[in-house]
Amino acid sequence: MKKLSPWYLVALAPIAVAGCSGAFLGQVTVLVVTVMIFVGTLSLGRA
């Protein structure tokens, strides 16, 4: 299985919760971007 790029997940996150309210959408978007930055930071040292 091909590994998904973190940017792909970041791009899809707002679309996935588009039916929710604006405040919730904003919070989820910030949370997802923060988690992706964390995961990206952890994967920097890997070959």
What does it look like?
This protein is an all-alpha fold and 47 residues long. It has one domain. It is 68% helix and 0% strand. The chain contains two helices and no strands. Helix 1 (6-16) runs antiparallel to helix 2 (22-42). The radius of gyration is 12 Å and the shape is elongated. The model has no long low-confidence stretch (mean pLDDT 76).
Keywords:
47 residues, 0% strand, mainly alpha, elongated
Q: What would you say about this model in short?
A:
The chain has 47 residues and is mainly α. The chain contains two helices and no strands.
What characteristic shape results from the CA principal axes? elongated
Largest sheet: none
Write down the Rg. Answer: 12 Å
Estimate percent helicity. Answer: 55-70%
Distance between the termini: 19 Å
Count of domains: 1
Order of helices and strands: HH
What is the β-strand count? 0
Briefly note the structural class of the backbone: mainly alpha
Taken as a percent bin, the fraction of beta residues is under 5%
Number of helices: 2
Averaging pLDDT over every residue, what do you get? 76
| Low-confidence region ranges | none
Q: Secondary structure elements and their pairing?
A:
Elements (H helix, E strand, L loop, with lengths): L5 H11 L5 H21 L5
Helix pairs in contact: 1-2
